[in-house]
Structures are given as structure tokens and as C-alpha cells.
Protein: DUF4440 domain-containing protein
Amino acid sequence: MILKAPQAFSYRSEEVVLAQHPVILQIARADEAIVKEDFDTLLDIYSENAVLVVEPGRNAVGKAAIRAAFKKIAVYFQNGLQLRQKGMQLLESGDTCLVLALTEVAAPSYPAVERKACYVFNRSADGTWLCCIYNSYGHDIVFHDI
Amino acid sequence: MILKAPQAFSYRSEEVVLAQHPVILQIARADEAIVKEDFDTLLDIYSENAVLVVEPGRNAVGKAAIRAAFKKIAVYFQNGLQLRQKGMQLLESGDTCLVLALTEVAAPSYPAVERKACYVFNRSADGTWLCCIYNSYGHDIVFHDI
Structure:
């Protein structure tokens, strides 16, 4: 199934199907949890061995490392991080879903930046989609060492 | 495991690990098969329900549709398609691997274009990595209807 949202979460008629897609709902939950610094809810959305790109060249692997990274990110943005999904497309194949998103990241102390994010979700045995790869930097990571 | 190749397939010392990664080897096989128009070898690299982005807004789903799409692509490029991987990064989580690549597409009748490609591979039960999502257009697909 391939779906599209010119402005994700805006719920215009043609976007209802996408807005109801469980992966989109998980991304909305994750974004809300990041902004609220609700790390328990946030970590529920990640698989055990998930990879988070903290910044180009640096990754956090596994739930404990991802939790620690998000805590540091919250401090870095002086607890004022804001996220806005400006466009999104899903490519779904079996139990795997690739999300391409234009994500605006901003904070009171930080000018808004648009990132070309890539997320991968897997559907677990109970039907829940969990994020296994979270890379908000897209191709910016290609020429960075780990 | 997270790996990096400033110039994929160039096999300089620091890239040996990446060059030997089975997903990179599959991409090299796929690129060679595309150029040679060896569609049997090419289709072996895709999973049964794989999704290929033919162009932004148009996808081929499943092996038969992907084979037909690659045949049309070969004709479109007047049987002279050339591919060059200029940089590549892998993000691997369990049996799922996201590849971000800078891929140069060229043909005698077609000026070279660099694409920011996103590929997703899954490891099957026998250990083989198969491509389930092949999107050479990256974020160019976000604002296109399917």
C-alpha cells in the first residue's frame, strides 16, 4: 500500500486514509511524546534493537541508548523542541514500511530547519508497527563516519 | 551495524567491511544486472511483494510488475543505462537494513543525474538479504500522488 500526505495530520478528505494508517499514527504519537518529553510512551514505539541517528556520524542503538539520547536532545533544545510534519509518503511491503518525511524541527533558541527524514517500521507478530530505524537527517549521514 | 562508504565499491582499506556487507554485494549485483538487462538475476534480489518506485507517483508492486518496469526502463534509456554509486550508508536493525545512496544515473542519450536513493532490505530465513523497497528518487516522491 502506498499513501501520500501533502500535509500530514491535516486530515483533509484525500488524506484520511493516510492519516488513519497505523504507521502515521505511531509517528504522530512519537512526535507528541518527544515534544512532551514523555519518554515511556516514546520508547514504546521503538523496537528493542532500533537505531536512532542522533546526528550525522553518531547513532544510538537499543532502547536504553535511545532514551538517553532523547533526554540529551531535550536539554539541547532547552526543553522547547517543536516538530511539524510538512509532507509524508509511505512505501509499504509486507511487514516493512519506509516513511519519507519533510520534518520541521524548531525551538525558541533554534531557527526552524527542514529535514528530509527516513524512518523504517516493522510490523510485529501482534500487529503493532514499531520503529526500527529513525534517521531524521536523511542523506546527510552518507559522508559521515560513525 | 552501521557502516559507511564514501565511494562505494572502491574498496579502499577503510571500506572493506562495508564492501563485504551482503546488502552492498546485493546492490552491486542488482546494478550490474540492470546495466546488463539480466532480469532473472535482477529479480532474484527482490522479495515477492517488493515495491519499486518507477518514477515519482508511479510504483511497481511484485516481481512481475517490477520485471516489466525494468524492461521499459531499459528501452527508455535506449539500452544504454549506466549506474554509479557515489556514496552509501547503511543503517541495520535486526533483519532490516536501510540503505541511503547517492546514485548517478546516466545514458548516452541522457545527461547524468545524481539521485538520493533509499532502499530497504530484509534478511530472509535462509540469511539472504532481499530488497523489499527500491526508491531511487528519495524524497522526490513526497508530494506526488500514486
